[in-house]
Amino acid sequence: EFRYGEYSTVTVVTPNGKVDFGKDSPLVVIAGPCSVENEEMIVETAQVVKAAGAKFLRGGAYKPRTSPYAFQGHGESALDLLAKAREVTGLGIITEVMDTADVDKIANVADILQVGARNMQNFSLLKKVGATGKPVLLKRGLSATIEEWLMAAEYILAAGNPNVILCERGIRSFDRQHTRNVLDLSVVPVLRTLTHLPITIDPSHATGKSQYVPTMTMGAIAAGTDSLMIEVHPNPAKALSDGPQSLKPQEFQELMLEVKPLAQFF
Ligand code: PEP
Ligand code: MN
């Protein structure tokens, strides 16, 4: 039995108060670096994105990298840095959980638990994050159908946790020459017919190139997304992960100024 249509708004309690994702709520912007690299960069980025209008800081502590030799994230010490950035800015924190063994420790710091594209069908992880009752941002799998994605969400709902936000981050196609993935913006109107779960669009992982992020951000807003997740790095050229798709602080500020008249989020 499908149950994923029963819920509507996800409320996340942050140090700055409550933020509603979904129906009739202002656009929620989540921003920050792909990975938490050090204290200075995460605190600086947090301050910049907050001033520009973001309500949540993103930053990976545990990173799902294609190569085992690539930077894997600083783990637990990065969680402490995210807590520090929240203390300084009051922003809500979202970070990825990859392993059931880390769920409780991450849930102690994060306001939203992120389940990444590569773990969308990690059913033990879905059950475990469901059991925490914490808001969960569930990314669409690399090649997941909408049905598979919604049934993955259903695992979290079935565990008794109604606080699921669906995140479209681009799907795999045959052509990766000019974009990393294909941003499926049609999920916004399609999901509206299937579920009341709120939607986030991630134009950064979808395009893989910072130059395309502003246009796809505007497209996502036009399609009616509830939220956006955008990667921002103080020095993308030196980023330990996903530099090419990360906006510079000034680019993010400019984008938020463009977005502001279209979506009241201040
Ligand atoms: C991320 O958000 O940094 C990430 C790894 O995303 P995805 O799971 O969509 O690839
Ligand atoms: Mn990333």
TrEMBL record:
Superkingdom as given in the UniProt entry: Bacteria
Record EC number: 2.5.1.54
Domain DAHP synthetase I/KDSA: 12-259
Coiled coil: none
UniProtKB keywords: Transferase
GO MF annotations, alphabetized: 3-deoxy-7-phosphoheptulonate synthase activity; aldehyde-lyase activity
Protein name: 3-deoxy-7-phosphoheptulonate synthase
Gene Ontology biological-process annotations: aromatic amino acid family biosynthetic process
